[in-house]
Write a structure and sequence with these properties.
The complex is a heterodimer of chains A (97) and B (535). Chain A is mostly helical and 97 residues long. Chain A has helices at residues 6-37, 42-66, 70-95. Chain B is globular, with a radius of gyration of 27 Å. Classes of the chains: A mainly alpha (97), B alpha+beta (535).
């Protein structure tokens, strides 16, 4: 038990957080962007994006645990999330919803 | 370098597989067991209401249902007839309760229904029980607050999806692993067994996990709808899952048209001999009457509501559900695949066997976690609290849950018929038996506890047909020869489950002798055992 260093535990906790919370936020944003950009009627695009969302989420979780550096993990979650959020925000300004 | 990266990928995926699997394994096990039972929801409900044994379907049932409603509720604004089928031979007729003067504006109007024997038109009164519906609801709500329950089940399903995908990466030699079984080798055998049941039904596991997430996807992932519809989710539902428009009565009275030609017309429209599952009649007896027919799931995978609407007076077809666009059809098919309402009895058994493999996969994975850490316990010379906790949770869940199921069926036969809140007490018996198996588990050594629980399970399931014979007329002595076959099938399935639990009890007691022998032989060289064990 005590053979595990605190640094290791912190890293695991950080990855778990990135996978579960970060992964959900990123998957949600990807779903939201797909729902508005997919070239289909509105309801169709929304359904397609939502059906794909769990595959996206699962891929993010696998990637989080497969990546070596924990810093790269957080960068890989936060940067796309900010970019997708910016896209949604710009669209909101454009469409005015 | 590339090899090292690949190796570490496998290691991190193995870590993910172990912990994603263990943390939600117990809940997943319960979801798998109740889900598999839900494939037989109508059959379980039928067995738990032996008073319905004489009900038989008949072709002109809907017509007699309309007659019964005309006699009983001529003024109701809505009638519903759920047609009897081979699986559910009773007919349910329902009606919206006529509004009392001064209460016309109530939004939620009361709906009542009764069961009829399609052969005689008589009302059937059965004991109060939740039947198979209890397992069905537990499968996605865990008998909790529905919102909490479905979020917990959803999280577990997501963990399961990750565990399956990381499991595939871990076992890159998937075919080699599949054809490898090394019996009587302790941890190796458990690992092989876990691989075999996991890989054998892998497409099923992936399908059932993903489609399970799809069934509640708008709860779990509402952000797509939010992005394209804002907070007006009603607009999305209206576009994606359109409902026929509500109609108002004209106030002029008129006679309802003959239903028989409309049933034939609906069958012709749907093709492949499909019949309506339910018929809804709005404003019967009014000139604005509407007859709406909903297609059964037989002969199609999709779960969408295929409806045809007729004018209730002229019998003219007014509207029919058309072809859905791609994404909606995909959604309906994924949803339908999860429910498996379309399947014939043979296919349903195949699904149930895959579910059983899923149960075995989760259970063997849980046991494997414990077995794998045996060398650690030997090295420590004691059992750490975490290991003990996992062992007790494993026994109390893997065998305790089936014990609860057996108690639920026993309670159905043994509780007094007039007992107040009878269906609630059946559910309580389920939870009492399940809880007791957690409480009983720590009192014995691990293997003995497994054996005791398995033996008790075999007895409870094995004696169920006997209890059934002592309390009802729907026992094997009658049902094997004269039917209804659903009762015979249920009793025989209970005997099969008892047999499997007895096998497990035998296996647990047989295994108990192996480590003692090994221990006696190698106790002088304990370190060697640890080395080989952890290799």
């Amino acid at each position: 038990m005590s053979s595990l260093s605190n640094a290791y535990r912190l890293e695991v906790a950080s990855r778990v957080l990135a996978a579960i919370v970060g992964g959900y936020v990123l998957a949600s944003l990807a779903t939201a962007v797909l729902a508005v950009v997919l070239p289909m009627p509105r309801a169709e695009a929304t359904l397609t994006a939502t059906m794909l969302s769990f595959a996206i989420y699962a891929c993010i979780v696998l990637w989080v645990f497969a990546t070596r550096s924990v810093w790269r993990v957080w960068a890989g979650v936060v940067v796309p999330a900010v970019a997708l959020n910016a896209l949604l925000w710009l669209r909101q300004l454009w469409v005015g919803v | 370098m590339g090899g090292r990266v690949k190796e570490s990928l496998r290691q991190s995926m193995a870590w993910l597989h172990t912990w994603a699997g263990l943390t939600v394994g117990w809940i997943l096990y319960a979801v798998f067991v109740t889900g598999t039972l839900s494939y037989f929801r109508p059959e379980i409900s039928h067995w738990m209401r032996p008073e319905l044994r004489d009900a038989r379907e008949r072709p002109d049932a809907i017509e007699s249902g309309i007659r019964a409603l005309r006699d009983r509720q001529p003024n109701s604004p809505r009638w519903v007839i759920v047609a009897p089928t081979a699986r559910e031979p009773t007919m349910r007729i329902g009606w919206m309760v006529t509004t009392e003067p001064g209460q016309e504006n109530r939004i939620l109007r009361r709906f009542e229904s009764i069961l009829l024997n399609p052969q005689t038109g008589e009302e059937l009164k059965a004991r109060e029980t939740a039947g198979g519906d209890f397992f069905y609801r537990f499968h996605f709500e865990l008998s909790m607050n529905p919102l909490w329950g479905c979020w917990i089940v959803g999280c577990c399903a997501m963990f399961m999806l990750v565990a399956i995908l990381s499991g595939i990466v871990t076992h890159r030699n998937i075919f080699k692993n599949f054809f490898t079984f090394r019996p009587n080798k302790g941890q190796r055998s458990w690992l092989d067994a876990h691989n075999i049941v996991g890989v054998l039904a892998l497409p099923y596991h992936l399908m059932i996990t993903y489609t399970g997430l799809i069934t509640l996807m708008l709860t779990y992932m509402p952000w797509g709808v939010q992005a394209s519809y804002g907070y007006d989710s009603g607009a999305f539902l209206a576009e994606a899952f359109p409902n026929p428009p509500q109609t108002n009565p004209t106030g002029r009275s008129s006679t309802l048209t003959d239903i028989e030609p409309l049933l034939e017309e609906a069958s012709r429209q749907w093709g492949s001999g499909a019949l309506p599952e339910s018929v809804t009649i709005d404003h019967p007896g009014d000139a604005g009457a509407r007859i709406q027919m909903q297609r059964t799931s037989v002969g199609r995978i999709s779960s969408n509501d295929q409806t045809i609407i007729f004018d209730g007076v002229t019998g003219k077809m007014l509207a029919a559900t058309g072809d859905e666009p791609g994404a909606m059809r995909t959604h309906s098919v994924l949803y339908g695949l999860h429910l498996a309402h379309f399947s014939s009895i043979a296919l349903r058994w195949m699904f149930a066997l895959c579910g059983l493999l899923g149960i075995a996969m989760v259970a063997s994975g849980l046991v494997l976690w414990s077995v794998k850490r045996a060398p650690e316990r030997v090295a420590l010379g004691r059992t750490p609290f975490g290991h003990r906790l996992v062992e007790i949770l494993n026994i109390g869940t893997v065998v305790g849950l089936p014990l609860g199921v057996a108690a639920y069926f026993w309670a159905n036969r043994l509780l007094p018929i007039e007992l107040a809140d009878r269906s609630l007490w059946e559910v309580r018996c389920f939870f009492i038996a399940w809880t007791l198996s957690y409480i009983a588990a720590p009192w014995q050594a691990v293997r003995q506890a497994w054996r005791t629980h398995f033996t008790l399970g075999a007895l409870l399931f094995g004696l169920l047909p006997l209890v059934n014979a002592l309390t009802t007329n729907t026992h094997l002595g009658i049902t094997l020869l004269h039917g209804p076959s659903v009762y015979a099938g249920f009793d025989l399935t209970m005997l099969a489950i008892a047999f499997m639990l007895a096998l497990a009890a035998w296996y647990a007691s047989r295994e108990a002798s192996v480590p003692q022998r090994v221990h006696g032989r190698t106790s002088a060289r304990a370190p060697t055992t640890i080395e080989t064990g952890s290799a």
